[in-house]
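Translate sequence into structure tokens.
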Amino acid sequence: MALKRKFTIDVALILGFTLLGFAVMGYHPGIEDDGHYLSAIKADLNPALYPFDAEFFRVELQATVFDKWIAGFVDFTGIPLATTALLWQLGSILLTVFACWNIARRLFPEERAQWAGVAMVAAMFTLPVAGTRLFLLDQHLHPRNVATAFILLAVSRIVAGRRAQAVPLLMLAFLMHPIMAALGASFCCFLTLTMSEPLHLWFRSLRYAGPSSAVGALVPLGWIFAPPNPLWKKALDTRTYYFLYKWTWYEWLGAVAPLFLFWLLWRRARKHRDTVLARFALAVFSYGIFQQVLAMLVLAFPSLIRLTPLQPMRFLQILYVLLALIAGALIGKHLLKASVWRWAAFLLAFNGTMFAAQRIEFSNSQHIEWPGRTPQNPWLQAFAWIRANTPTNAYFALDPYYLEAPGEDFHSFRALAERSQLADAVKDAAVVTQVPQLGPVWNRQLEAQQGWKDFQLADFERLKTEFGVGWVLVAYPQPENLDCRWHNDSLSVCQIP
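Result follows.
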């Protein structure tokens, strides 16, 4: 009976922290990278969509089965895509929370430490990872979210001494996000060594693990090595966060400080004869040092610039998850203990702070954009009207910097309006860094849209003649002589005569 009661409590807490983490981080389908992934899934489900410029999301996804996986799930279950994406997002969070709990159970015998670690991770899902522009988990369904869950599950299996079970989990992660999976496999190599070898033999083994980890961390996608050209370099220069040596001092601090903290934890745990925690901290520290040095070398030499889009500093993402987990566990063990008031203050402080930060970041959007809910954001209202009232093969032009417009909150036109568009200057530039052959197309379309805010009818007609664009999304009130079909207080949807 006692075991059954404990099992029920554990399940309730895992579900509770899953829902709490989701509530704090919010949910925003179609933002940022989801503009590519969601568009690809919709194109898989309906090939009639995106007859123009679909290569801006299709080519990049050749290295993952993520879009096919989700589209296949929709076809098999009959569950609408919007609901499917929400369910998979919740599933990714649930698996992440479950994996973190399993890791914490092996590192800390005290239950309060275990759950405090899980609580910290759940609160910190949207913590920025140094200068990488990543979070622990994204506020939308991203293959990195799914891969992170599988990687953490693999880590939990290694810590539990069941290394063989980690292999299929890492393979699943690789199917979702090859680069993050390669980094996860690299960490698992270090962890396996520290957990299975006497520490005085581990350093001798490291010289054999290092090269294999390097290869795993740098598994390239073939198209990344397409011959560079000035237009590829132009797109690359828009992503300043790719370049480690352009990071600010506090971003460097965010990269180096966790390594120092894990070094301190290793020494402290070893001093107190906490063998499992010491070995785990040593694995994280060694992995971090190895990947940091590797990233510094890769990003230091101009001859290796074609490796820059791999973003080797992304290794910090898993390290940050583990940092949050262990920091929370230590707080629970030494500060919170059994005090209800301390636990309440702990949960309120971290969850409240992160919730407030998300409301500031997405101040013009609903915190959780539920499927089927009428949008309040004027951009999303326009996208919804376009999706329901324009032909499937409609080809749109809009401000190439629309994603950065006040109140737009980085929602993707392609993914949410479900219509083709001319290339934008923000997210499509990131695609060009990964797929250099798109550089000429991207640059030509971008140059044709220069001076967008001053466009008049003749400029729109030029776009129609040059590219076949028939529709535009412009600011309201619109320029004269456009045939406009809909507007709200901010935007107009118009047809070019």
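Note: Confidence is low (pLDDT under 50) at residues 205-225.
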